[in-house]
Amino acid sequence: MTFDLIIRNANLPDGSTGLDIGCRDGKIAAVERRLKADAGEEIDAGGKLVSPPFIDIHFHMDATLSLGNPRLNETGTLLEGIQLWSEKRPTLTHDDVADRALRYCDLAVAQGLLAVRSHVDVTASHMIGVEALLDVRERVKPYLDLQLVAFPQDGYFRRPEIAANLERALDMGVDVVGGIPHFERTMEDGRRSVTALCEIAAERGLPVDLHCDETDDPMSRHIETLAYETQRLGLQGRVAGSHLTSMHSMDNYYASKLLPLIAEAGIHCIPNPIANIVLQGRHDTYPKRRGMMRVPEMMALGINVAYGQDSVLDPWYSLGNADMLDVASMAVHVGHMTSLAAMRASFDAVTVNAAKAFGLDGYGLAPGCNADFVLLEARDPVEAIRLRPARLAVVRRGRVISRSAPRSARLDLAGRPGIVEPWLYAPKLPN
After folding, report:
1. Which ranges carry the Amidohydrolase domain (predicted)?
2. What are the structural domains of the chain?
3. Catalytic residue at 32?
């Protein structure tokens, strides 16, 4: 038996060790110990972790890598970021958006990030961002799955042309219906926008992903309406609530009612740990709220929680590097999710949970799945979050599309080892 690629002696995220992964014709054809076969290429994982690729379920690719243009966000607030984007929007060109997006996809691939859901602003009638990202979606299809959300950044009801723009974007081939109910002029307009957007999705057979309650206001409760409309329209499994930062400030009694409603509706919940803790709580003195939804409690109820990155080098966030393990690490810290089970759940939130929210076919490490995976210089998911290690090999459809050198340091210390390899230093953790 001959394969195109075999990864030997790999650890898997479920704790399995010493497995060989055989790939043929773009699919995983075998996962077993000591696979007796030849291959066009073999890679010895040497007891390191092979993971399905990372997924960013919430991003803004039309804005990425635009940091400083037209100026920097001096207050660090969400509202100044939106104002900066409104100043940038009239200057957008197709080439500018496409070039920045393609450069970002290069960075993503190098980090083992092979699927991105990007919101694209449909506020302006010129639709330059939509056209550019539709072009990018086709250009990156061989190596990255890009899903687009029609996002009315300034609100669905703010101006009459925005509703028409959103419909145009969907007609052009945008994949998902987006919205931002808390940014409408009134709570009532926000409620009406949730209803209208969910009805559009139901009529078109599309998913819904709303920026929802991205505020410190505990009375911003559009997620409750989203849960209701999901059930009324039979959209279970097709709806995502992104951000939900008001949940951080809600009364515990109300939250005890809300979370079961979200679970019952089958809504995917998408916190953006890095962006949320940076942008929220800016009006606080001390203590400062961090704006994260109640991730451990939601996971305990069986709600599918998937982490997004939101922004990299743009008007809202001046850092970032397309590393979803950085996002998972931030969630672990800010959510006090430091038990082994919670850290492993955070790894799932940037892999399998995100794939479920994305609706990604053929995802995983079982025979029959697409041969897409990442070889990490770490032994297990907890070490991967701790180290944010080198992506030694990134594989797409059975072909290595990115390679990185191992991380090591040479020491010149009397009586000590000459080389330090960080992945070898952690004690073995219990299963």
Report:
1. 41-400
2. 2-52+364-424 (2.30.40.10), 54-358 (3.20.20.140)
3. no
